[in-house]
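Can you give me the bound-state structure? Components:
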Amino acid sequence: MSMQQPDKRSFWQSLVVRIPYAWLLAFFLVPFLIVLKISLSQTAIAQPPYLPVLDLAAGWPAVKAFFAALSFDNYTLIGSDRLYLLSYVKSVEIAAFSTLILVVIGYPIAYAMARMPGRWQAVLVLLVVLPFWTSLLIRIYAWMNILQHDGLLNQALIALAIVKEPQVWLATDTAIYIGVVYSYLPFMVLPLYATLEKLDESLREAAADLGCPRWRIFWLVTLPLSSSGLLAGVLLCFIPIVGEFVIPDLLGGSQSPMIGQTIWMEFFGNKDWPAASAVAVVLVCLLVTPIVIYQSQAMRALQRE
Amino acid sequence: MHSVGSKRDFAPWTDPNLRPLLRIEVLTKRFGGTAVVERLSLDIYEGEFFALLGPSGCGKTTLLRLIAGFERPNAGRILLDGVDLARVPPHRRPVNMMFQNYALFPHLTVEANVAFGLKQEGLPRHEIAQRVADMLALVKLERFAGRKPHQLSGGQRQRVALARSLVKRPRVLLLDEPMAALDKKLRGETQFELMELQRELGLTFVIVTHDQSEAMIVADRIGVMDRGRLMQVAPPEVIYERPNSRWVADFVGDVNLFEGRLGADCQSVEGTAAGRVRGVAKVDAEPGKLVWAAVRPENVGIAREPPLPGLDNCVAGTVIDIGYLGDTSVYHVRVRDGALVKVAIANAARGAGRAVTFDDPVWLNWSPEAAILLTQ
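Here's the bound-state model for the whole set.
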């Protein structure tokens, strides 16, 4: 019995470690491989609407024929049509600028929260997550109301005599930025708050004691020590914003779609599943590559220490 | 009972014409409604090693933070070199603080931590490098310059914190419980190192501690604090041998207190648990007033034979407890009216005869010089 005890524990321990991996395998890697496979297929009027379809019952020759029929045609198509390129550029542009805006707005909020008295902090965290209690779709519809021609925003601007005529807000990039920044603010504030809240106040006092004025304490102590939270916030916002679909679809214009809209169009408009899959695969590679590079560098920095 | 004398020939506080380096004038700091520092005045002199000693919550750390500028006083002034510090923010004060938790910057190397303060002064790069290297050599950390704080032991971190606050050559170095996080043996070594360092650099140190032996070892003078006030400010040997109140006598070291009425000669206490206790110094109070005689346990002699009759400062009792501490043994003796008297005897001096043991009837006595008469 006594010999088995450690084995048993390590079995359960390894199981606990494996659950997230199993999760990732089942709900990320497998679907990704399916999408990857579809992206190498050709569109067809069939059910499902692409060819080839792997038929294991037909034996080895069918498998060989299946692999022979796969091609990179869809990726060549993405490369040749400017629509896709523009769509990627627009998505990254919107994601980058709104992440920047989110940092500028979110950092002071998180900083102020972290320096509040303890009992206020819990209330403020609750307020930050409160919007999640309402569906995103409903909140975006509310923004459509606010931003429309005779909406609250125009009424307020006219009442304050800032503008004379109602302005066009809906169906512009500005509306997308408003919707994105509004929706993603908690994802920026919460990780930043979590790191800033742990920041030892005596470090800031030590910096002041050693001759640092307030603003330089921020640059030399507070900011470097909250960099992990900042990075987490940036990744949590930037990555989903690149693939954002609902917000640009409801608030944005139809001139230049974001990549999420392009994928939707290929899937449901053109019924071209292979092309849509190829666009999606390229998007995943685009987003994963910088993270992998960052990770490997962080690991190397850790090993150096 | 003769004083061992000062540790060195240094007593600027006895010179009335000398201007103190740091002058604290009727300083008051309140948090909410309670005064943490209350109408406190204190002078600290150039080159002095001053210890603020008191139980936790007595306001000693707050006083240190007021000097550093992290707290603003509600009333009173702090003058450094005759200049009022009220409008000087912490980063402009020529004082540095060593924090209790060290407050080392975790994202910077040992070298960068020590250089941090010098960089804020905008000194030339080679001068910074030179001074940092010198300081790291002084605290014996040259080999660890490239490490991050989390890669150091507790004792090494403590030395980095010390180096970082010393490298700016502050007019006053404030040390907040600098050795609280070290283990006992290391603390003992570090206390002497710190004292040598202070003498060598000739800087003014103000240390906050709750450890009386630490204060006694390092300090030229000790300020004993309780509830925001200074109870006594004096060199260690005076604090110990001539405390000015029951509170100080009891807080610094062990003491036996005999309560009674001041005798007509103004230098004895009548009607205590030990009968009449005679001192040597005259007390400035009315005879018949409630006073106390304080006698340190190590100044009480213990004997198994009765003394000559009619002797003062002598009482019979029974040993009820013996504590063996290695270098000394502590005897708890129950005297006539049930009071407990503590006696400490150095084990090396116990003598060859049969040792005093439990339930032995014994006689205690002490010289008049050992009895300090206290009026408060």
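A couple of observations. Chain A touches chain B at residues 200, 202-203, 205-213, 216, 220-221, 224-225, 305 (CB under 8 Å). Strands of chain A lie at 42-43, 50-51.
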